[in-house]
């Protein structure tokens, strides 16, 4: 499988937020990976993702650390989880991970921005992230809708394959660690 770096390590190495096209590619890749996990049964899917639990591989694939107990993940945790509601269905588990992924990617576009500087996103991406971070579960979007939106955007914008971007982000981390910057 190769060596993995976390999304947090990618941002630390570059010292600046992700750009819009990078967010679209990552959103497509993570949603695709999460849907694969979801098909295997909701017991395999962790309800909380964070910048420290999304793993990027040098071969362009993604993986996720098992359920986060290794860092402060409260800000990435869906409100219903924080309120102690148990997940009873696959849909409920999926909605929690959608929230968590949305918050994780918001963190990535807001990384090291001065507090008074707004995040620079297209209304299309901002609306999608907001629908993912919706506090009310019933109004929150689902993984399939996120995937379809990303695929449409990907085709319309003629973005490179998501795997290529993931490989590039991993290479950038290694390049920075070797050069000692």
How is the secondary structure organized here?
Layout: E1 4-6, H1 7-14, H2 20-39, E2 54-57, E3 62-64, H3 79-82, H4 90-110, H5 123-132, H6 143-157, H7 162-179
Antiparallel strand pairs: 1-2, 2-3
Helix pairs in contact: 1-7, 2-4, 2-6, 2-7, 4-5
Q: Give the overall pLDDT as a whole number.
A: 88
Following the backbone from N to C, one meets helices and strands in this order, namely: EHHEEHHHHH
Strand order of the largest sheet: 1-2-3
Number of structural units classed as domains: 1
Q: CATH superfamily assignment?
A: Transferase(Phosphotransferase) domain 1
CATH class: Mainly Alpha
Report Rg. Answer: 16 Å
- Strand residues, percent: 5-15%
Question: Characteristics of this structure?
Answer:
181 residues, mainly alpha, Transferase(Phosphotransferase), domain 1, three-stranded antiparallel beta sheet, NonRcpt_TyrProt_Phosphatase, repeat, KIND domain-containing protein, KIND_dom
Structure description:
With 181 residues, the chain is mostly helical. It has a single domain (4-179), classed as Transferase(Phosphotransferase) domain 1 (Transferase(Phosphotransferase), domain 1, Orthogonal Bundle), CATH 1.10.510.10. Helices cover 53% and strands 6% of the residues. The chain contains 7 helices and 3 strands, in the order E-H-H-E-E-H-H-H-H-H. It has helices at residues 7-14, 20-39, 79-82, 90-110, 123-132, 143-157, 162-179; strands at residues 4-6, 54-57, 62-64. The protein has a 3-stranded antiparallel β-sheet with strand order 1-2-3. Strand 2 and strand 3 (62-64) form a beta hairpin. The protein is globular and about 50 Å long. The two termini are 27 Å apart. The mean pLDDT is 88.
């Amino acid at each position: 499988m190769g060596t993995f770096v976390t999304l947090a390590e990618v941002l630390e190495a570059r010292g600046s937020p992700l750009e819009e096209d990078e967010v679209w590619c990552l959103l497509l890749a993570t949603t695709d990976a999460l849907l694969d996990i979801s098909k295997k049964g909701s017991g395999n899917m962790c309800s909380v993702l964070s910048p420290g639990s999304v793993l990027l591989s040098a071969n362009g694939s993604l993986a996720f650390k098992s359920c986060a107990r290794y860092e402060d993940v409260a800000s990435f945790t869906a409100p219903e989880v924080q309120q102690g509601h148990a997940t009873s269905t696959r849909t409920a588990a999926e909605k929690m991970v959608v929230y968590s992924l949305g918050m994780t990617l918001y963190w990535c576009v807001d990384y090291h921005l001065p507090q008074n500087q707004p995040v620079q996103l297209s209304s299309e991406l901002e609306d999608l992230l907001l629908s993912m971070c919706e506090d009310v579960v019933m109004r929150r979007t689902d993984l399939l809708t996120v995937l379809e939106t990303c695929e449409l955007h990907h085709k319309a914008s003629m973005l490179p394959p998501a795997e290529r971007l993931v490989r590039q982000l991993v290479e950038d981390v290694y390049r920075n660690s070797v050069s000692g910057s």
